[in-house]
Amino acid sequence: MKTYISVALALFLITTQGEAQVNFSEDIAPIIYKNCSSCHRPGEIGPMSLTNYEQVKNWANTIKYVTSIKYMPPWQANPEYQNYLSENYLTEEEIAKISEWVDNDTPRGDASLEPNFPNFPNESLLGEPDLILEMEQAHVHEGDERDSYYYFVLPTGLTEDKIIKAVEFRPGNTKIVHHALLFEDTEGLARESDADTPEYGFEGFGGFDTNSNDLSILDQKQYPGYVPGQKPIRYPLGIGQTLGAGADIVIQVHYAPSPVDETDQSKINLFFADADEDVDRLTKERIMLPFDLPGGFLSFIMFPNQEKSFHGVWNVNQDISLLGLSPHMHLLGTEWTVYLENTDGSITNLINIPEWDFNWQGNYFFQRFMVAKAGSKIHAIATYDNTSENPQNPSFPPQTVTWGERTQDEMYYLPIFFVDYKEGDEDIVFMDDVNTSTKNVLNNKVTSFIHPIFPNPVKETVNLSFNMGTGGACKISVQDLNGKEIKVLRNQEFFQMGGQQIQFDSRTFTAGLYLVVIEGEDFILTEKFIKS
Length: 532
Fold this sequence. Notes:
Blueprint: H1 2-18, H2 24-35, H3 53-58, H4 60-68, H5 92-103, E1 131-134, E2 139-141, E3 148-155, E4 162-170, E5 177-185, H6 189-195, E6 202-203, E7 222-226, E8 239-243, E9 248-255, E10 262-264, E11 267-272, E12 281-282, E13 284-288, E14 301-302, E15 306-315, E16 320-325, E17 333-341, E18 347-353, E19 364-372, E20 377-386, E21 401-402, E22 414-420, E23 441-442, E24 445-446, E25 449-450, E26 461-468, E27 472-480, E28 485-495, E29 498-505, E30 512-519, E31 524-531
Helix pairs in contact: 2-5, 4-5
């Protein structure tokens, strides 16, 4: 009997030892540093810093709670409905690891296996911009513990049209700048509104009024906006967005509540297309409004103590390829569901936001083209709760609500970004599933490495995939075998921990053998490719 017990105990010990205990160094640090620390670090909008083991341990129970209910990270789109570029949510496995780690008294593990904390740049996340626009004056955000929404006009001074590859909003005061929306204004509408107020900028909520037409600014081009912790979108190869000569860029800034007066003087970095990039498709925009509802604009009305959904339809009249979308509503909003009804009757999911939160708006760009053929339909269903049971309702008791700019008004507003369809768009992927996990293990360490280039040899587009062991800025270039720099692809652009992918055009290269060189703070990666 003793022998039997000893053997059983030995088997039990072997089994339990084989299942490594979740620890901070190997399991939790990669999750926190990738998904949380961009906001939770000194000077940023997060209420506490999460930059090392002790800080994370001190907030462990709170982290367990807010991740278990999926309040943090603040990603609103349902990942089971559709996927997007720059997603920032935790998988069920990652949430379970955090919970297990906290329940087991937050063990650190081997500190030598911890990834370094990301080296976030103080300036641009995308590198050196081509044009910088800054607010002319500092704005004072009053310390009254209330949100505020202000518009500011930034003249571009451009004498010719430009093709935009990226627009990067840089908050002047990260403690109070919650998010920002950006528009092109070619008609001076915002200037007129600003001139009517004595202070720099003017207040607004979700839009701004003009003397002539309340919807005029909403008809203007919208650029990808700013949400804390998200890297700005860079348009894929061959695609861009125009910025007209003499245009203003108008920013709507949401300032978070503060107990003391704070000042902000934010700026915008603009990145233009390189002269040798053949940008043959320009991003267009179709904004779904109450005009797209069955009863037209006047049907957008909600009576007191009413929950109501509005189902708009855009009948697509030409072949297009969808890039992304940016749902918008106010405080009564509870849910967005948008899908594409294809010409054969099949359905393509576009976005579902099951629990709308006005405080966490964003742009959602697809990981691949969503092709919509002529004759297809885009359905957009928005749901609102105008009852006293809605804690976000700005009116108590509830009042009749229609379209408007004020806090107590509402909006049905859905910009959809697309380009004209081109044969082969169905096969174009902007990011694939290779190497996109939070942690890539090689010799028991999180490492930086580069994948073989595909295709190789190449004729036109080169696909480059690599992994970052620690978040940081990189220079990525193409060199010949003598070390001569042929082209700089990225100049000190920040890449987060995990899998990354970029594309570039090799058509201007002469036939021969080349090296892609990725230079990080503490590593250099190289990979050969043949230009045929």
